[in-house]
Amino acid sequence: MIRRGRRARSAEAPTRKVDYHNLRNPFPPMNAFTEDRIEALHQASLTVLEDIGIKVLLPEARKLFAQGGARVEDEMVFIGRDMVEAAIASAPKSILMKAAAPERDLTLELGRLVFQPGAGAPHATDLVRGRRPGTIRDFREMVQITQAFDVLHMVPPLVEAQDVPVELRHYAMTEAELTLSDKVPFLYSRGTPQVRDGFQMIRDFRGLSDAEFQAQPWCYTIINTNSPRVIDMPMAQGLIDFARAGQMSIVTPFTLMGAMAPVTVAGAMTLSHAEALAAITLTQLTKPGAPVCYGTFTSNVDMKSGAPAFGTPEHFTASLVAGQLARRLGLPWRCAGGSAANINDAQAANETQFALWGCLMAGATVVIHSAGWLEGGLTVSFEKIITDLEVLQMVAELCAGTPASDADIALDALREVQPSGHFFGATHTMERYQTQFYEPLVGDWSNFGTWTERGEVDANHRAIGIWQEIVENGTAPAHDPDRIAGLSEFIARRTQEGGAAPES
Predict the structure, then answer these.
(1) List of E strands, 98-184
(2) Which family is this sequence assigned to (predicted)?
């Protein structure tokens, strides 16, 4: 899929091949704390697990911890340092995520960079239809938009399809991911029956045997601990189910400073790190070598209202600390952007970009909520996805860049153009600008007078036309019609059988 916003300037110009699938972060990681403080934080997290303990609600998970050597007292589990260190050693440091086509495969490891749009929101919004509870139509349209841009690498749970009953919702959402995209899909962890359905849908749609499916990760889930210090039943079961099947879990404690975590960055990250280590340990007790991604989602709250805040100095600092901890473990890791703004305005742009730079400077592998997220995760905006994508594409250009060649240094052009001349028509320029010129998605580089004479609108309204064109005219990947029919038959049969209710 050619990246939108990149247009050839003449019929003779060579076509520029856009490849944003193998991005590497070009920025040196930034540290927030000294290395001795990071080690102290890591050791404090181990003390939390060993001496204070973590509450694990699923009996099967407690049994696995006990078999691994943990002390279990009722629902409290006390995990020794040696168990945690063994889990860190067995967890893979590089994970190859398989997509529908080899060119969509992703390698997750430190130094790589993968973007996802905003996810997990109960509401969708756009300037045409307004703010509303998320529907399966909203989800399908956002999958189409995710598919249309090379800089978005994985399909997340964009919005919740609340117009589909919960026992059938996973069929509708997985069907949309598989048929409208060829990128790495997401599955919810809402109990073994739903997970088993999802695995079967992906396995059959990809044409895999059971052994082939379990040999490599073809999908992922997101595991949120219930802070402070609780792994609830669905999340624990999800960790076990995905580990047993060889599929990836992204472990993401959600620790808001002053609310479900200590009010300081160091205290919140100590708790977040401890919870992540507990979940990672459970995956490795289930199946050593199971793919698992370290994650964090730590920011602060407005202490007057309790509302979460994003794109703040504390959010930025927490991301940097998480990066240091991930490098201490050697694991690929997930960070997040996002905004607490209510609409796609200057506040939303500033918060999202500041949070994004925190992720980049921290060396994050997977950056979720990098486009479209509003209201602290309550809403995904169609227009904001488009306006945020312009920034992501600029970042991707930095990451996909190549070293300057002798020709790029342009001595011939410097000889050709006389003093006080210009380079618009220089041979060096004409050979390159058709394929290197960056044309923004929603910006406009004309002067103000020309812009107003044309009756142009602002970025938000220009974004409407872009997402509407993708939804109305975008083409789905050319999947095997027989597999599409088989997927439909499976969903129809399971729907007639009553589906699979989520487990609590």
Answers:
(1) 106-108, 114-115, 123-125, 132-133
(2) Belongs to the trimethylamine methyltransferase family.
Dihedral sign for Cα 383, 249, 394, 177, please: negative
Q: Please indicate, yes or no, if residue 252 is contained in any of the structural domains.
A: yes
Q: At what angle do helices 192-205 and 233-244 cross, to 10 degrees?
A: 30
- Beta-carbon neighbour count of residue 60 at 10 Å? 13
Rounded to an integer, what distance in angstroms lies between the CA atom of residue 201 and that of residue 215?
17
303, 251 contact by CB (below 8 A): no
Q: How many domains does the chain have?
A: 1
Tens of pLDDT, residues 366-421: 999 999 999 999 999 999 999 999 999 999 988 876 678 899 899 999 999 999 99
Residue 443 falls inside a structural domain: no
Torsion of CA 292, 181, 175, 160, to 10 degrees: 70
Contact, 256 vs 308, CB < 8 A?
Answer: yes
**Domain assignment of residue 142, given as a range:** 88-399
Q: Give the dihedral sign, CA 327/117/147/221.
A: positive
Tell me, yes or no, whether 344 lies in a domain: yes
Angle 136-148/459-473 helices, nearest 10 degrees?
100
Q: How many CA atoms lie within 13 A of 338 on its CB side?
A: 26
Is 347 domain-assigned?
yes
Residue 215, domain CATH? 3.20.20.480
